[in-house]
Here is the input.
Amino acid sequence: MGWFGGRDKLKTAEERKRQSMLRLRSLGIPVIDHLPVIEEESEVRIRTAQEIAARILVLAHLNLVAEVPKERAEVVKFLKETGLWRTASPQEQDQFGRKLAKQEAIDISWRTECIWVMLWAIGKFPSIELPTKEVQVDEVIEFIPELTSDPTDFVRIAKLRPVSEVLDFADLTYRLHWAARQEDLDGQQRTPLILSAVREQHYAFNWITYYADEWDEVTTDT
Here is the structure.
């Protein structure tokens, strides 16, 4: 069964924290009481659905370039013609324009997790699973336009989920990341969580909720 398929009533940040902790404990995932709350719904800033949709497309095309470097020139031309280039971060623009190191290509492939969260955030599917397996590119492709095809409608019709649902998942992911990171530090895998997947999903939520203004500046503190 997926998570966050329904819509909860408005809750405080503290109530959201307690909800997340109860859910994680029920799944046997460790939590700590002193991990702070996230932003209150009345105060949080959220990216628009159009910003999120454009970011999905930039990440998808960067993934394409990482996997198929010969497509670089065509992809850059496409991004510039459609205006998506302006939404790519400085680091991404640099990566689009040169040969990537092996580790860079691996890091970019992990951004598929960010795409998955963002697709959920704009309502492309009703629920999302615990990050215990990697999201595959094929799973993402069915929800976005064919690469280097007209992105206008995809961006225009994107609609953000209720903010309360986004914050529910953001809070839970924050606490999941602490648990996964703690396992890594301890050198003991007690849960099926994949640290890299959780970290990327946390990154996506921190961008969506303006933890930092710019994509390249986002951090994932726990």
